[in-house]
Design brief:
Elements lengths: L11 H40 L1 E16 L5 E13 L2 E9 L1 H5 L5 E8 L2 E6 L4 H40 L1 E15 L2 E10 L4 E3 L16 E6 L5 E3 H4 L14
Helix pairs in contact: 1-3
């Protein structure tokens, strides 16, 4: 996000994105992806129920793999190789399984599993695994979808506030009091803090340090007071094109 206190003001989408709307978009995308994965697994389950056959499968090459994520959290995954008969002979597939299933078999064990003839991607190693997986992802998609709706409402209101402040808000002057930084694993972000002419403190949307280089501590900045009581910096919402009718924010 650049400094919009000069030049062309941002559009509604840019303001929505930078006020946090990206979270709603990402949550919505995750919801759609989880719904598609859930639908796929439930279709696999339906195919097994309607066209599945039981075959003898050989399990071997057990592997217990321990990894750590970027936060250092330990994760254990369990793998087995499944050998199943096919029309062309045999196929060997690497699959992840639960800890209980992993510990309950030995290399070379033979068990009867379900599969759709001719489709090695539709093999049910553990009973009802596709149904349980599909239903679990449906619940996750529902939770994430609800979160996306809430985020859309929250950040949508912030976007409307910013646009209304730029178009019809009362102009205020402010003085920069601090450029505050916050370090995280995703990098360093900065916020411009100010005190407006009424003595009320406020802060900008986050950005890189270069975005605030023209506004050192003690510098005066232009602000807009929205009718909802929020104060916005012109560097976040841009300058209005023409002087509007100022709303009485005290009503």
């Amino acid at each position: 996000m650049r400094d919009y206190s000069k030049g062309k003001p941002p559009g509604a989408w840019a303001i929505f994105w930078h006020t946090g709307g990206a979270m709603a978009v990402f949550a919505g995308a995750i919801c759609v992806a989880m719904t598609l994965f859930a639908t796929r697994d439930l279709r696999f389950h339906t195919a097994l129920e309607t066209r599945g056959v039981r075959v003898a499968a050989v399990f071997d090459e057990k592997e217990r793999r321990v990894t750590r994520d970027s936060n250092g959290h330990r994760e254990v995954k369990y793998y087995v190789t499944v050998q199943v008969p096919t029309a062309d002979g045999e196929a060997r597939l690497r699959r992840t399984v639960s800890q209980g299933f992993f510990e309950g078999i030995e290399d070379g064990d033979t068990r009867r599993i379900r599969m759709v003839p001719g489709r090695t991607d539709r093999i049910e190693v553990q009973a009802d695994e596709f149904r349980r997986s599909g239903q679990s992802m449906q619940y996750v998609a529902l939770a994430v979808g609800l979160g996306a709706i809430v985020a859309l409402w929250v950040f949508g209101r912030r976007t409307v506030s910013a646009l209304l402040a730029r178009r019809r808000g009362q102009s205020l002057r402010g003085r920069v009091t601090e450029l505050r930084r916050h370090r995280s694993k995703n990098g360093t972000r900065f916020w411009l803090h100010w005190e407006d002419e009424r003595g009320v403190p406020g802060k900008s949307l986050p950005g890189k340090e270069a975005r605030f280089s023209d506004h050192p501590v003690g510098a005066e900045i232009d602000l807009y007071l929205c009718p909802d009581g929020r104060v916005w910096w012109t560097g976040d919402v841009g300058l209005r094109d023409a002087a509007p009718t100022v709303l009485d924010v005290k009503r």
